[in-house]
């Protein structure tokens, strides 16, 4: 589930967004990691299954970038954050030391993670709000923000980020070169109708 710890571990990063309002409460930074061993049928991010690719980045550099972004915290998603628990535990701990919040998405069930190794325990320890459980495409969640399917559990590991109400948001970013990128959640039919014909990257949890 996790690599061994070093003093400044490396995280294989698929994407970093400095500011978004679509990946958790408030304005947050978001880090998508490369690699997922769970591979849920219907996952929106099959390009993140492989551990090849992404950009190896030190925990120290990621912490600095989150803090410099000036947001209320960071959201970790993927890919599977707990497949890189050592590196992300270091990132989450550093972000928390800076007074910011940490939200982590995982395809693992919370009871399974509770039996994990010390790196898994460290990432849980540094997470305020965990959204846990695999994506189940026949149980789409149309009611709760950020959750992809109704089986996924919101686990409040601290008293911060208690407010998980509000709308699901889909955030569309268009660069000056015409690239279109999405953050947030919408069901597949809505996405297909919205994006028909557009050259889009679709990072999802
Ligand atoms: S939904 Fe998440 S846990 Fe499931 S395959 Fe996709 S990235 Fe992995």
TrEMBL record:
* Required cofactor names: [4Fe-4S] cluster
Print the keywords alphabetically.
4Fe-4S, Iron, Iron-sulfur, Metal-binding, S-adenosyl-L-methionine
Q: Is Membrane given among the entry's keywords?
A: no
Q: Which residues form the signal peptide?
A: none
- Lineage of the species this protein comes from: Bacteria, Bacillati, Actinomycetota, Actinomycetes, Micromonosporales
Show the SUPFAM superfamilies listed in the entry: Radical SAM enzymes (SSF102114)
Q: What protein name is recorded for this chain?
A: 4Fe-4S single cluster domain-containing protein
InterPro entries registered for this protein in UniProt = Aldolase_TIM (IPR013785), NrdG (IPR012837), Organic_radical-activating (IPR034457), rSAM (IPR007197), rSAM_sf (IPR058240)
């Amino acid at each position: 589930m996790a690599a061994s710890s070093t003093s400044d571990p490396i995280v294989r990063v698929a994407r970093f967004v400095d500011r978004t309002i679509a990946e958790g409460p408030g304005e947050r930074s978001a880090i998508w990691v490369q690699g997922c061993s769970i591979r849920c049928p219907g996952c929106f991010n099959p390009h993140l299954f492989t551990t090849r690719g992404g950009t190896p980045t030190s925990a120290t550099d990621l912490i600095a970038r989150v803090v410099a972004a000036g947001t209320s915290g960071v959201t970790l998603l993927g890919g599977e954050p707990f497949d890189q628990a050592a590196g992300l535990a270091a990132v989450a701990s550093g972000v928390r030391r800076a007074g910011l919040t940490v939200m982590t998405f995982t395809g693992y069930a919370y009871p399974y993670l509770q039996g994990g190794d010390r790196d898994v325990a460290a990432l849980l320890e540094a997470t305020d709000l965990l959204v846990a459980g695999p994506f189940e495409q026949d149980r789409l969640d149309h009611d709760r923000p950020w959750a992809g399917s109704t089986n996924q559990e919101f686990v409040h590991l601290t008293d911060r980020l208690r407010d998980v109400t509000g709308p699901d948001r889909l955030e569309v970013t268009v660069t000056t070169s015409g690239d279109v990128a999405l953050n947030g959640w919408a069901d597949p039919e809505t996405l297909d109708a919205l994006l028909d014909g557009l050259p889009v990257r679709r990072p999802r949890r």
